[in-house]
Amino acid sequence: MIQDTIAEIKNPALSIQDLCVYYDQNKAVKNVSVDIKKNTVTAIMGPSGCGKSTLLRALNRMHELYDNIRTEGKVLIHDQNIYDVPAIKLRRQMGMVFQRPNPFPTMSIYENVIAGYKLNGIRLKKGEKDEVVERSLRDVALWDEVKDTLHKKGTFLSGGQQQRLCIARALAFGPEIILMDEPTSALDPIATSKVEDLLVKLKENYTIILVTHNMTQAARISDYSLFMYLGELVEYGKTKNMFTNPIDPRTEQYLTGKFG
Amino acid sequence: MNSDKITKLVLSLGSFILIIVAAGMVYSLVVGSIPAFKTFGFQFIFSNNWDPTSGKENYGALPFIAGTLISSILALLISLPLSFSTSLFLGEYFKGTRVARILSTLVDLLAGIPSIVYGLWGFYVLRPLMIELGIGSQGFGVFTASVILAIMIIPYATSLSNEIISMVPNDLKEAAYSLGATRLEVIQTVTIPNAHSGIIAGYILSFGRALGETMAVTMLIGNSNKVPDSLFGTGNSMASVIANQFGEADGLKLSALIAIGLLLFVITALVNALGKLIIKKMQ
Ligand SMILES: Nc1ncnc2c1ncn2[C@@H]1O[C@H](COP(=O)(O)OP(=O)(O)OP(=O)(O)O)[C@@H](O)[C@H]1O
Ligand SMILES: [Mg+2]
């Protein structure tokens, strides 16, 4: 494995150390170690089935919801292992955005944004709620489009709007890190470019880890890239360097479209 | 004629016969009940006097309507907590596990037991228990019948709500977990709100089943032709009075029984239509 920039990352937002994930006996993520830099977009790339989603979902301990999945290794956030804090507390520090937009269909746009508070039993005053909703929707550039229909169901929005709503929902609780699993793969090019612009803007305040199939997307918006193959971390470095001068032959093959 | 046409003909003939049979049933129910409605008018539905003594014959369906509705509603209330928790157990907590598979097979098995067997069990096990608990000297009554009815409808309510609960999309639940929700919070804010109309429809359909249930009720409700004095008193139900008195009835009494049959048919059809409507709206 080649890590040309690992040494440069001081005070990482997240330090993944020797992480392994097993589905029953099948090892889907193999001893991955990587430091994620604060306030950057880090792209996770690789061919289908290489373990991108599996790695991402280990970071907010999503795998614990399923009995057949086992995780080994450490992930440090502020020098504390995520497996040593309660999962609920951890998940509030890490927002997650899924591949398919999934606003809660029984809730309005407004309720979707503050769902994190509701789910955690945190009562806010009306004024505070309004503030959180407006700020989060402004963050995702959705406010102007929905400010008059806040109390309509979120599922009436277009796919791209729904996805931005889901990002707003993830932001509302003030996470430090946002995990995104191919957040634009269900969107059309215009909606995709809106979300991409948004991510570039969001990294001022958040650290974003983005799984993507789309190499041009990774090239456009990510600062660091991580290339995985068959569960292993093959190459990690500044996106610019990796795209212009990949070190591992497998990375080069992937980037030139030989597989994937 | 090619085989396609023949198939089509045979199939449409089949459905046609089915429609004729159903229409014929409704028709004969209506025709059969005309004498009763002619004699008593709408009073038939609201009168609680059931007196077959010849000369001063009078028939009112209220005792049976009341018995059917009370026992079915009570059965629904008794079965609700049990089937609700079972369906959450099957569709959420233990979804896809072996325990859930075994339990859900058992629940389905309950649905397949003939109602006469429930009646027997109620008669020989439940009734003595009621006597011991001091509910009526004989242990018969609306409450006893309701308990049996409750057990009988649990499988219906459970398997439908279980199905609906397990259909709640996983990505919604994961979204809630990713926001830091606990399992209970996920159930309260995602699972149940997304499944609630289906769950309600399940209860309405099982209520519909309770309304028409005959054998087990007749063996336990006490078969007294009056509006029950209390939940623990004896009474009779629409299906049960028909089953019991049909054999020796003729003339006006027969017509009264047929009229009760028609009413039962209408009530059950309405309840089922409501349940189906809710399910349809959900999809
Ligand atoms: N729920 C699961 N149970 C068992 N095996 C799984 C499960 N999810 C994924 N896997 C396996 O783990 C490996 C990695 O899957 P993962 O979903 O992480 O790939 P990915 O890189 O995200 O692929 P894609 O680009 O298609 O989303 C695959 O071999 C897959 O078959
Ligand atoms: Mg994936």
Automatic annotation (TrEMBL), chain A:
Record GO terms (molecular function): ATP binding; ATP hydrolysis activity; phosphate transmembrane transporter activity
CDD domains, A to Z: ABC_PstB_phosphate_transporter
Annotated keywords: ATP-binding, Nucleotide-binding, Phosphate transport, Transport
Protein name from the UniProt record: Phosphate transport system ATP-binding protein
Location of the ABC transporter domain: 14-255
Gene Ontology cellular component annotations, sorted alphabetically: membrane
SMART domains: AAA
Single Gene Ontology BP annotation: phosphate ion transmembrane transport
Organism: Mangrovibacterium marinum
SUPFAM superfamilies the UniProt entry points to: P-loop containing nucleoside triphosphate hydrolases
Pfam family name, one: ABC_tran
PANTHER family (alphabetical): ABC TRANSPORTER I FAMILY MEMBER 17
UniProtKB/TrEMBL annotation, chain B:
Gene Ontology MF terms in the entry: phosphate transmembrane transporter activity
Classification via InterPro entries: MetI-like, MetI-like_sf, Phosphate_PstC, Phosphate_Transport_Permease
Ranges of residues in domain ABC transmembrane type-1: 65-275
Main localisation: membrane
Keywords: Cell membrane, Membrane, Phosphate transport, Transmembrane, Transmembrane helix, Transport
Signal peptide start and end residues: none
Keyword Transmembrane found: yes
Transmembrane segments: 12-37, 58-82, 102-126, 138-157, 256-279
Family affiliation: Belongs to the binding-protein-dependent transport system permease family. CysTW subfamily.
Function: Part of the binding-protein-dependent transport system for phosphate; probably responsible for the translocation of the substrate across the membrane.
PANTHER family (UniProt xref): PHOSPHATE TRANSPORT SYSTEM PERMEASE PROTEIN PST, PHOSPHATE TRANSPORT SYSTEM PERMEASE PROTEIN PSTC
Protein name: Phosphate transport system permease protein
